Here is the input.
Amino acid sequence: MEPRLPAHLEVAGLIRAVEAAGGFAAVLRKGEREAGTILVLTIQSGTNGRLFERMPSLDGQRKWHQIPFQDTDNKEKLSEYLYRRGRQDGDLWIIELDIANGERFIGLTGTEG
Here is the structure.
C-alpha cells in the first residue's frame, strides 16, 4: 500500500492549484483531517458536473473513479446525494472544482474514470 498524503493537505493543494489556474474551488463538506475520503465534484460555470472518488484497487493503489451519478445538473438531487453520502461517511470531504476540465487536477484526462 502506498503512503497517503493527509486529506487536509491534498484538499488545500487542489484548491490552490484550481485557483492558480483561474478557477474556483470550495470545500462543501469538511471530513477527517488525516485520512478522510475525498469526493470531488467538477463543474464548469455551474454545469456539466461530474463526481469522482478515489477508491482502493486490488493492487493496493487508490485510483480516481467517476461516480455514475445520472443527474449532476439537477442541483436539488445532487445536493440530496451529497448530503446522504456525508451522513453515511462522517470522514468524507466534498470538494467542488469549478473550472474547465477539472478532472485534470486529480490526475485524470477526461477519458478515464
